[in-house]
Each structure stands twice: as C-alpha cells, then as structure tokens.
Prior knowledge:
By secondary structure, this protein is α/β, with parallel strands linked by helices. About 40% of the residues lie in helices and about 15% in strands. The protein contains 11 helices and 15 strands. It has helices at about 20-25, 35-50, 65-75, 90-100, 120-130, 150-160, 205-215, 245-260, 265-285, 310-320, 345-360, and strands spanning about 5-10, 55-60, 80-85, 105-110, 135, 140, 145, 160-165, 185, 200-205, 285-290, 300-305, 320-325, 325, 335-340. The strands form 4 sheets. Strands 2-10-9-8-5-3-4 form a 7-stranded mixed β-sheet, with helices on both faces. The chain has a 4-stranded antiparallel β-sheet with strand order 11-12-15-14, covered by helices on one side. The radius of gyration is 20 Å and the shape is globular.
Amino acid sequence: MEDRDELLMTPGPTAVPPEVREATSRPIVNPDVEAEFSSFYRSLLDKLARVYDTDDDVLVLSGEGMLGLEAAVASLVAPGDEVLCLANGIFGEGFADFVEMHDGEPTVHDAPADAGFDVDAVKKRVEDGDFEVATMVHCETPTGVLNDLDEVLGVLQDAGVLTVVDAVSSLGGTPVPTDRIDVCLGASQKCFSSPPGLTTLSVSDRAWEKVEATEQDTFYTSLGPWQDVEIPEDSPPHLPYTHSVTNLFALDASLDRLLDEGLESVYDRHASVAEECRERGRDLGLEPFAADEALCSPTVTAFAVEGRAGDLQRRLADERDVILSTGLGDLADDVLRVGHMGYNADPERVERTMDALAAVLD
C-alpha cells in the first residue's frame, strides 16, 4: 500500500500531513524522568487551550476519542443520577449506554437524524426532569449533521445542568461554543489530522466540583487523577501514567499547523471546501443527508445514496484509489461520506475525490 497513490478521505482517521508524520520520528523521551518534558507538555497544553478557545483546564488522555466519551460519564455520573442524552444520531444515543454502564439513569431526547434539536422541546424536557448532566454531539459524523447547540446549551446552563459535548469531529474545523460547555471532548485523528490515539478535553470548574463529589470507581476512565497534575519548571511532570509521547509529538505539530494558519482561516477553509463538495455532489445528482443546508457540517459531507454506499465505496477504492466511508447502523448502505476535515480540507484533495466519484457514477 505504500506504493499506491491512495487518497484517504474518510472523516477520521484523516490523512496525516508530512510535518506531523515527521514529528512521530522524534527520539522517545521518558516523561517520568526527563525534566525537559515539562516545558514541552506545558507548551502543548497552552496551544490546545488556544484551539479550544478556553480558560478552562485542558487535558490529553492516552486513548482514542471514545475514551473521552466514557471518561466524562464515568467521572461525572454517580449511581442514580439522572442524565439527559440529546440524540439525533448513533453517537448521541451511545452516551446513554455509557450512563447505564455507570449506573446512571439516562433519558434519551430523540430528534430526527437529518435535523437538529428543537430548543423549546429541550427546555420542556429539562423543566420536567431533575438532571445532573446533559450529553450531546456537536457533529454527528455518520450523517454529516452539525448541531447548532448555542441555545440548547443556554437552556441547560440556566437550569444548572452540567453539559458534556462530543466535539470530536468539529473541534479544529469549525467554531465550538466551549464557553457554555463543561466538558468538551476532542480527539487527535479528526480535524487535528494527527494519528489516532489521543483524547483531548476541556473541563470547567463546575465539572471538577462534580468529579470531586462523585465516587470514582475506575482509574483509567476517571478524570480525577488528572485534576491536580503538577508540571514543575525544572523537574518531570507528575502524570497519572506514562503518556503516549510519540502521539504527543504529532499532536504538537498538528496544533502548530492550525495556529500558524490562524483559526479563522482554518474555519473559512473548511467551510469553502465543504460547499464545493456539496455543489459537486448535487451536480452528480447527490443530495446531502441533512435536511437543511444550514445543518451540513463543514468537516464531513454525508451523501444520501439509497443502498449503493458499499458498492460505491469498493469501486472508488479499487478503481480510483480513493477511500471514503459509508454510513453506520441502519444507514450503513444509504450514506456515503466524504471527510474534508483537517489536512483533507483542501480544494485539490476534494476535487480529486469528487472527480473519482463522478467517474464511478458514470
């Protein structure tokens, strides 16, 4: 496969840019004994906070993005806690599974998979319940729907409900309302275009208070050990476990790419290539799965293809060396997804992808 001119355009993992791949070849350091690691790690967290646009604590955990979803629930939800799970897709629904695993009481508030949340309906559900925590997804990657969460978060904030947002597929590609989010989850392999293996989080003071008040019955999936991590000036940091150093080097290079370009430019680039992708799709007779253009994510486009996704995916790979993703669950063969996030939010890469799709459809 190294000799193939293969174009990986899935919505995570994304293709990894050369400078990020190069960063993975840096010599290993031991974060437990080498004092120099502290200054690197402190700088990394500072860059991450700038991308998150937050003054809250930011964390990096060793584990794929799903670790963050479970860790947020495991750390904030005590047995018997009522949790409101806003869901218009698989990942929104999946939060309820984590809540049950940790003996919480989930209430799933469903919305159509191709639409967003009705603010008045959410407000009524909040008024009728006694929720400690609410979970939701910013970008439902399997359907390409970007949920407008501003008003919903305002309702929950006014009611004193802690908010957990899966922003794994949006963070670094489009603005995220982190100022209203108590735990905001990201991951290395999406818009950061870094190798899979790291979860990122921002954690508010209110969230830390709930972590302290909740008995932590796990270690690796608990945020508790990360609350008072010390990063001294002239000695190694006191981390809960040996970190994934090589992945951290890659993430650092990825963050440099974002910050050097400037976040506003990054967001504009994503919006522009997403619009181009959808326009090319419509020229081919394909419509986005999202019912409204305003709901289409700038990081991934899901085209409705009615039972053809698997066949199109195979032909694109075999005939054109272009790798796309299908849908998930009930939509597995009805949705074909183009990931134009991070390094792949590039006009030439999107153009080649859509040219390949046009050829296969012909």
